[in-house]
Design goal:
The chain is mainly α. It contains 10 helices and no strands.
């Protein structure tokens, strides 16, 4: 319900809801939960998710549990989170996706799991970089092949006009430029 006096102040902004202060114990517990994802403790995460922990819980940087498990290469934790409906499209505060993190780190199994659960193969970060670009830059041949097989656009360009092929060349990747050139 809107405060009756809010209209008389002359302000066109609605009153902001009060944010409850989080006590130190709750903040410590939240950090422990995010550490479980970083460390890949799938068993403990599954127990917490079964008790109602939100699968899309995010930390102060906007990193979801799925983002952390993906970036740190913990396939079992990723599978548990996806089974509890973690959204592979949830971006962190920098606009990065779990798929881009997994492609950057070179984990094909996590890339596959994310794509199989609805990650957008073309989901670009704010600078226009796609998972294909990340994989190509770091010579992640198997990931490049997988992403291409699942519809990644080889001709997509980032904000600077650079394609995955261009990025691979620029970074000195030995194998992915030739692979990408064959698909153009």
């Amino acid at each position: 319900m809107q405060n009756e006096s809010s209209g008389s102040s002359g302000s066109s902004n609605p009153p902001s809801p009060e944010r409850p202060e989080l006590d130190d114990d709750l903040l410590k517990y939240a950090e422990e939960v995010f550490e479980l994802a970083r460390e890949g403790d799938a068993v403990t995460l599954e127990g917490l998710l079964a008790k109602g922990l939100p699968a899309n819980l995010r930390n102060h940087k906007g990193d979801s549990l799925l983002m952390l498990a993906s970036y740190y290469g913990h396939l079992d934790a990723v599978k548990v989170l996806l089974a509890y409906k973690a959204d592979p499209q949830v971006r962190n505060d920098r606009g990065q996706t779990p798929l881009a993190g997994a492609a950057f780190k070179g984990d094909l199994g996590i890339v596959q799991a994310l794509i199989e659960h609805g990650a957008d193969v073309e989901g670009a970060s704010p600078d226009g970089r796609t998972a294909l670009m990340m994989a190509a830059m770091f010579n992640r041949v198997e990931i490049v092949k997988y992403l291409l097989a699942h519809g990644a656009a080889v001709d997509a360009k980032d904000a600077a006009g650079i394609t995955a092929h261009d990025a691979a060349l620029k970074m000195g990747a030995p194998d992915t430029p030739g692979l990408l050139a064959k698909t153009q």
